[in-house]
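Subject: Protein record for review, amino acid sequence with backbone structure tokens
How to read it: Take the token row as a discrete description of the fold.
Enclosed: The protein record, placed directly beneath this head.
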Amino acid sequence: MSNQFSRTELLFGKEAMEKLLNARVAVFGIGGVGGHTLEALVRSGVGTVDIIDNDTVCLSNLNRQLIATHKTIGQYKVDAAQQRMEEINPDVVIHKHRTFFLPETADQFNFAQYDYIVDAIDTVTGKLELAVRAKQAGVPIISSMGAGNKVDPTAFEVADIYETSVCPLAKVMRRELKKRGIDKLKVVYSREPARTPIEAENVEETEEENGKSGVQIFCGEPARRRQIPGSNAFVPSVAGLIMAGEVIKGLL
């Protein structure tokens, strides 16, 4: 009998589809990388997903994030993502967590209930805490390293964190994970040297020029960033899809 997962079942079989249906995956961060991971998991038949993010959709997300459209600007990303995922699979169970994941918020989550954890957040302290909590709970995790300021989608690799090189974020993670006694972590990373972004005009001027007064151009809190990274439609998406593939293989 034909169903929306028939083509996937031709590759993996009925038993595998049952495993995916009964699996619960947590996706921390549903931006350029995590949004593509999330959608690929739902399109693959994963039955339950937790989505964790406290950001809202803004204008600068439109160039790379699946949930970002002119209709969703201003919405919380978890709300926009839930609506999109339920349009793809009305039977999927979505658990929304409108929060930034940091060590201070980690106790809000029962990590033992997950079959797999996806780390697609961009704060080092959060990524480290996720790795620690996943190890404590005995749950597999995959972590995204830096995708900003890069233009070669073919350069991504899947590796253990201690086998990585070039990537500055991976270097920091290696050092800090070692201090915490974490001896392994599956990551998706690129050895492509990051480009230096062209200096952007300030947000207020950009808003005026685009006639979007009151619309947030850059998400998050730019004042807390050293520099806003450049990005595009084809690098974060590839990283996200690679992560989804690794999760599906792990669940099966």
Notes: The radius of gyration is 18 Å. The first helix runs from residue 6 to 12.
